[in-house]
């Protein structure tokens, strides 16, 4: 019969946050987690920075006019861990479901920096890790700092090995390959609904990226995208041009199989889509092209991944480092061994002399 591989139902959420309201959005997320769990899903994906919303104002006004909105977003940002993630963890445990959700992240020691972060929670209500978006896209640099390689991970679960990237990162070939090379089997890609898509084809971009990643890596991909509601338009759309920008996007979420095929999709409205994921289906696909195995040339092509976490300060002391201490200990041991060998030599000489003296006395 051989080994058995995970098969389960996956879910992708397409919904609006309660804009710039952390507690209300967490409540909504918990309700959606419970709904997905009741419908038999073992994994649910949420949109980019679902808590507590995408900073659409960066595309609408000069950065000099952002102070009010930036401050509001910062005050509604999420600390990891913290009360918001505690609530999400409780919901995941109650629903017996894995959760990947986007948040605006802040840290207690800083009053002006945020990250675009995906949080990964297991079905027991434990935070497995987080991924910070490596490079904020274009005007997003006005809001979020860069992530680092410490979150470029693939997390092992009883449903398979999962990795995640946010929005434009899914066009970064090296970032996607770094996850595949760590054995990724399930990929979560999340997005906002962005008005630029009316000219540049955001939904087409999403479809091409997700289908390509699934086809190249022979993995399942969950795409989760937020929607724009009337409350958000009223808050930010004080001119007809701004209202048009806010409403011109048409959100698209989908689940893709390991051939790049669409298993389920939703466009425009809020909802949760579901699809069956069978990890075993990846095996025959990889027989043809396994780019992290037989279908590559690692002697010709290679990738370096720096997983060190960025730190604002590294504290130094006058105490010797571990390596210095080890070197000093090794030198002391060598000197001791040398002394012991010298003492043994002198001892043998003394024994020889004593033996000679005893021999002379006996004769």
Characterise this structure.
The chain has 363 residues and is of the alpha/beta class. The chain has two domains: 7-288, Carbon-nitrogen hydrolase (Nitrilase/N-carbamoyl-D-aminoacid amidohydrolase), CATH 3.60.110.10; 319-363. The chain contains ten helices and twelve strands. The strands form two sheets. It has a six-stranded mixed beta sheet. The radius of gyration is 29 Å and the shape is elongated. The mean pLDDT is 93.
Question: DSSP helix count?
Answer: 10
- Which outline best applies? elongated
Count of individual domains: 2
Elements, N to C (H/E): EHEHHEEEEEHEHHEHHEEEHH
Amount of helix: 25-40%
Please write the CATH class name of the largest domain: Alpha Beta
Whole-number average pLDDT? 93
SS elements, strand count? 12
Instruction: Write the CATH homologous superfamily of the largest domain.
Output: Carbon-nitrogen hydrolase
From the structure provided, what is the oligomeric state, counting identical versus distinct chains? single chain
Radius of gyration: 29 Å
CATH architecture of the largest domain, please?
4-Layer Sandwich
Give the strand order, joined by hyphens, for the main sheet: 5-4-3-2-1-12
CATH topology of the largest domain: Nitrilase/N-carbamoyl-D-aminoacid amidohydrolase
Largest sheet: 6 strands, mixed
Q: Report the portion of residues in β strands.
A: 15-25%
Short summary of the structure?
The chain has a six-stranded mixed β-sheet with strand order 5-4-3-2-1-12. Strands 6-7-8-9-10-11 form a six-stranded mixed β-sheet, with helices on one face. With 363 residues, it is α/β, with parallel strands linked by helices.
